[in-house]
Amino acid sequence: MTKHTFYVTTPIYYVTAKPHLGSLYSTVLADVAARWNKLQGKQVFFLTGTDEHGQKIAQAAAKAGKEPKEFVDSFIPAYQQAWKSYEIDYTYFIRTTDPDHVKAVQDWLRRLMAQGDVYKDVYKGWYCTSDETFVTEKVAEHEVVQKGEAPLCPSCGRGTEWVAEETYFFRLSAYQDRLLSFYEQHPDFVLPKERIHEVINFVKSGLRDLSISRTTVTWGIPFPDAPHHVTYVWADALTNYITAIGYGNPSKEAFFQQWWPADVQVMGKDIVRFHAIYWPAFLMASGLALPKHLLVHGWITVDKQKMSKSFGNVVDPMMLHSLYGAEPVRYYLVRQLAVTHDSEFSIADLEQKISSDLADALGNLLNRLTSLAHQHSVVEIQPLAIWAQEAIDLRDACLTMVEDMTQYMNDYSYHMAYARLWQFINTTNAYFHSQEPWKVAKKDPALFVQILSATSHSLRAIALLLRPVMPKKMEQLLDSLGVAFSLQHENLAQLELGMWHHSFALKKIPTLFHKPEVKVAESNTALPQTEISSERTVQPVVPDNTITIDDLTKVQLLVGTIEQCEAMPQSDKMLRMQVNFGDKGMRQILAGVKQSYTPEQLLNKQATFVFNLSPRKMMGTESQGMMLVAEAADGKVKIMMPEAPVPNGTRLR
Ligand code: MSP
Q1: pLDDT tens across 414-435, in order?
Q2: pTM listed for this prediction
Q3: Kind of pairing, strands 264-268 and 226-231?
């Protein structure tokens, strides 16, 4: 029987600063997991919160001239506001300074002491304050021998300090074999699976007992019956995942049993060791089940360096929110950043995705559908029994997409899932375009209704599957199709996304996604011309004329196939073409090449285009890009073809 509850957690964030894009990324992935499982009809508990103890926080507070509690309190509104702005639908926000958590941790330690899994001894070693962890003996020996000085922390690269103190140990070494056999029996405990190798190697290299108390730190949970010891911040932090749902509280026993073990715990790759080794060992010692999966994502990098406060390269999620809105940024994080590896963040990339995927491929399709329906007063669409082969093909493609997408989503492969969904959006666009409903409307009204219905069915499936990422926008889209939907009453299984027997009431709504380029155009920034000029201008190469590589990467030069091409009767220069850019969609592009090529000569040819030029109207027709040409000796222009065919949408570099 499938389980009807789903428990998902984010890491709890250090509150030394406001949230940044890295923290938002972990949180959005967890939110998508939560919403996807709600869509599957499950009851969901989604936990997030803040990690507020430890030396690092105490030092940051001292630097700010504040008491630690006052200091951490000051950041909480920024976190909660950011999550609200980004539509993070968490169930509970835990703070490790919450009295319930403090008590539960102390009770837990008491039990572990009583059973002998926690004992007192003296610890000597090199300690990294920044990572709140001891450097392993091997690393320390190696570095000290080499340099005769304190070793650097292998994880963050900062200096360490020698610490010799009385401490409580957790008997980690006793769990080495059980951990190894657990990894063997649960090869998908860590996702992506490849990340388990470094964990296994670490455990195999030998686990020493873990020091879990400090006497040199005062900002933390006092150890039971030894208050001059405070609990090691990771022992305090990891347990949040169980204390938040009532662990150790007799009145919440049933609630705890209902939710634990977690289905998935989301985190960045830098904290895998804590979650894949210490955490399972703590749980084993406590007689509790282990989480089903750890979903480990890579880092967001800027210029190939991890985005982090200490490197001074953080992007403020609230700045992105004010420029682009919550849901386009959520989409970008889920689709463009691969869970499996590090991903470079750039504004240009974000704007390009909003423009091509959201505004062009998806928004435009809805807009064209509803405008055409209204233009021909066909807005109420009843279920149909007979479909043309092209519509049946589209329905089959929809069905396969739903199956693939469900598989990817259930495997937590979100970037793959949404790439797959976009493939289908392109298929729907291609169908709509090739059916030419604007021509069919009068000639064959029955076929016209069928094209509108097939496109609406596709959009319905697209919107429902995109809901976990863009909840509000997709509600607007569904509203525009006249589809009533409520999570309480319907879930994925009942939605019958592959069954095409639904009715629609098409309604025009304000533009769903705005292109960021429009903002640039409105700010009067000079933009290049769209029309192709036959004039040759030779610019002398002077230093002032050079551009940086960043300038160059602003221009998106893409290869596309000219799938339709026709002369524009009102112009002796212009050809109008429909260009296929693969998963970046179809574009209409006008080019002044009529005197050099007939439409037939260009048909099915690949050429190179400027893809991110703001759209421009010429003779009442919009051109959504510019074709690149070179002028030959006879004054005719030549298109720029790749030397061998390449996939549509390939970017020049
Ligand atoms: N407090 C610990 C976690 C304790 S969980 C029991 C912590 N906090 S953190 O604020 O430093 O980081 C929290 C999460 O944000 C981690 O998953 C981390 O990987 C993620 N990110 C921080 N910077 C990041 C990027 N530049 N890119 C992606 N995520 C990164 O660690």
Answers
A1: 999 999 999 999 999 999 999 9
A2: 0.78
A3: unpaired
